[in-house]
Design goal:
The chain is mostly helical. The chain contains seven helices and no strands. Helix 3 runs antiparallel to helix 6.
Length: 131
């Protein structure tokens, strides 16, 4: 009987997962190695700017969606620092998005088309999703 109750409780909890949690988990799973490509003299500045802008829009939208979560807005220090809390995961995702934002700006400055494309590909699964 105990096993059945535990199984039912686990299934109920899985069914209660929020789409925002899925987005936070997806952001936390993105890995972006630094790309130190030489400046591409053939790169079209308008194309680079377009890639940068598209990446920037996605990063800003995801950041705003995470910040709008009620749990993030009511976060306290203990929850943020507890590696097992949902809020810690959300703040980790926000930090990851800020790193992507900075890399995106750096790749535009360096005219690094490869780096911009890597960010675009990493964000592609999250581009059209909404919490």
């Amino acid at each position: 009987m105990f096993k059945k109750t535990t199984l039912l409780l686990a299934l109920a909890l899985v069914g209660c997962a929020k789409p925002a949690d899925d987005m936070v988990n997806a952001v936390n799973k993105i890995t972006l190695p630094a790309v130190t490509a030489t400046t591409d003299s053939q790169a079209n500045p308008a194309e680079l700017q377009g890639m940068h802008s598209a990446n920037q829009q996605t990063i800003v939208r995801l950041t705003a969606e995470i910040k709008q979560q009620e749990s993030v807005q009511q976060a306290d220090t203990d929850d943020i620092l507890n590696p097992h809390s949902e809020i810690h995961s959300s703040f980790k995702a926000l930090t990851h998005l800020e790193e992507m934002h900075q890399l995106n700006d750096l790749y535009l400055k360096d005219k690094n088309k490869t780096g911009l494309a890597m960010i675009e590909n990493a964000l592609k699964p999250l581009k059209d999703k909404s919490a």
